[in-house]
Amino acid sequence: xxxxxxxxxxxxxxxxxxxxxxxxxxxxxxxxxxxxxxxxxxxxxxxxxxxxxxxxxxxxxxxxxxxxxxxxxxxxxxxxxxxxxxxxxxxxxxxxxxxxxxxxxxxxxxxxxxxxxxxxxxxxxxxxxxxxxxxxxxxxxxxxxxxxxxxxxxxxxxxxxxxxxxxxxxxxxxxxxxxxxxxxxxxxxxxxxxxxxxxxxxxxxxxxxxxxxxxxxxxxxxxxxxxxxxxxxxxxxxxxxxxxxxxxxxxxxxxxxxxxxxxxxxxxxxxxxxxxxxxxxxxxxxxxxxxxxxxxxxxxxxxxxxxxxxxxxxxxxxxxxxxxxxxxxxxxxxxxxxxxxxxxxxxxxxxxxxxxxxxxxxxxxxxxxxxxxxxxxxxxxxxxxxxxxxxxxxxxxxxxxxxxxxxxxx
Length: 410
Prior knowledge:
By secondary structure, the protein is α+β, with helices and mostly antiparallel strands. It has helices spanning 27-42, 44-47, 55-68, 87-100, 102-121, 124-135, 248-284, 296-324, 330-355, 365-373, 383-393, 396-407; strands spanning 141-144, 160-164, 167-178, 185-191, 201-207, 213-217, 226-236, 241-242, 286-287, 290-291. The chain folds into three domains: 19-140, Butyryl-Coa Dehydrogenase, subunit A, domain 1, CATH 1.10.540; 142-248, Butyryl-CoA Dehydrogenase, subunit A, domain 2 (Beta Barrel); 250-395, Butyryl-CoA Dehydrogenase, subunit A, domain 3, CATH 1.20.140.10. The strands form three sheets. Strands 1-4-5-8 form a four-stranded mixed β-sheet. Strands 2-3-7-6 form a four-stranded antiparallel β-sheet, with no helix packed on it. It has a two-stranded antiparallel ribbon with strand order 9-10. The relative contact order is 0.10.
């Protein structure tokens, strides 16, 4: 009788190797998955709690290590490395990093988020000036678009950039900015014209050391570098303008449309960590003469967690695949972010519930995940905004034409 042999799947800590076998992915994505998961496993000491360094210091340390390991090389394609920057790679990397630790995902994602406008719209001089240091993890950047009165509604931005000869003078406040206070460079959205709404906005590159830049730290649920940025008479040279005058709103929207699906990838990573933690605890926990995992209600919860996790991972993979093949990303990205973040919130909550009182202990895995997951339903556009984006993208005419085939009177 003939025998068949099967190749053992690699152990990818935080990723499901069976998903990488789907047609959404190519061999280079499996290679990236192995590289990122090996990187997280080899730095397990950084992810233990209590943390070995304060959050802001740990974030800079992790960023530098990511750069030295080549995991940020895609941010500088002019330096000879263009691989790793497609959306499927970004989503997989965030999933694996989030599974390991919130700070790992945070350092990677904000750097990529802030570099993308320069990658896509920067002049040759701007790319050469900023991207090599960002790819090396030596220059930390931040994406400063939101304000106290302009979060999801970017067209309401009031920070001004007024022309003064060949220079620009910026005044205003940016709120809830990731990496603020530790970043070396800010990509800032400001109003340059008299037009109201989206038409008068431009994007600027603002070095953190520029006179007039002041940072106001903000404490948040999951400790990290986070602050408001006050701009008071900040003078910038003309070449600080990114893209064309009045073109800042399309740049910001493009970046957010792309990165929403990567937020879904991070949500899958957090949810997978919660699912694994809940499963392990349920199998170890002795109760009523057996294991917690043997109770019917617990088995049902674990099954629901797995279904939601798989659905979220598939929606993220589909969104990234669509973007990489040139489909407009808004609808699929919003769908992936909405479902993955909402599902991850439920999965993490179920994890805490299954741990019971042990899940409430400060800095335990369930408690950390419970604090870390909440922000994902808000940033890069709250869930309510994603529902509006999805609703606006529905093709009513196509639906009517399709249903009419079956709805004709006899």
